[in-house]
Amino acid sequence: LDQGGRFCVSLLSGHLGGANALARRVAAITGGTAVITTATDSAGLPSLDLLARERGLRIGELSAVKRANAALLEGRALRVQDPEGRLGDLDPALFEPVDRDGEVVVDWRAGQGPALRLHPPVLWAGVGCRRGTPPEEILGLLRQVFAGEGLALGSLAGLASVEDKRGETGLLAAAS
Prior knowledge:
This protein has helices spanning 19-30, 39-43, 48-54, 62-73, 135-149, 169-175, and strands at residues 7-9, 33-35, 58-59, 78-81, 95-97, 104-106, 116-119, 123-126, 156-160. By secondary structure, the protein is an alpha/beta fold. The two termini are 36 Å apart.
């Protein structure tokens, strides 16, 4: 914020970190102007990282967001594979719905390739353990099972167990 409160500049982590939104709020309070320089905002385009967050989706690999946003900035419509419609209504000038080979894929399964994968948190893991089991052991097993079954860890909504395990420290630490 400049000394007179006229300009509020977003400096770091404009999208996911919330700096752009904060700059806008502070500018509204001071009567100033928010200075937003992130490329998609400057071009009046949606940002895939913000779109994912607004829809409650988790980003599989952050670097894929940059590729998807760059495609929009180049004027290309992105092919979107979203069989359950979790992204909602999208601008058809910017996003083309497809049944396969999407550049943006919304799914609870793990996948490979350059596509931006967005994972809905819809999977629950039932976990049993002995008292004193370290969280690393629980997390290691979860990673192993998810990898073996082709599931995306980003789609893990939470852990469930029997009532007796409610205070189990390793389970609580793994869940957090």
